[in-house]
Amino acid sequence: MDPAANQVARGNKWTRAPQLGDLVLAKVSRPEDWNQEPAPRKFFVLFFGTREM
After folding, report:
1. Which helix (H) or strand (E) holds 30?
2. Cα distance between residue 15 and residue 13, in whole Å
3. Structure pTM?
4. Residue 5, phi then psi, degrees to nearest 5
């Protein structure tokens, strides 16, 4: 296995502030367990597979 594949991304990789409509890729486990209200300064995410927000 490639040793670089096990490295964790460090630091801020954004070249500019995220804007509404930007495509963001994320790994999410068990989103059904998130019974929380959105916190201020967070981003709304639309799950393409289930169309949940």
Report:
1. none
2. 6
3. 0.29
4. -70, -20
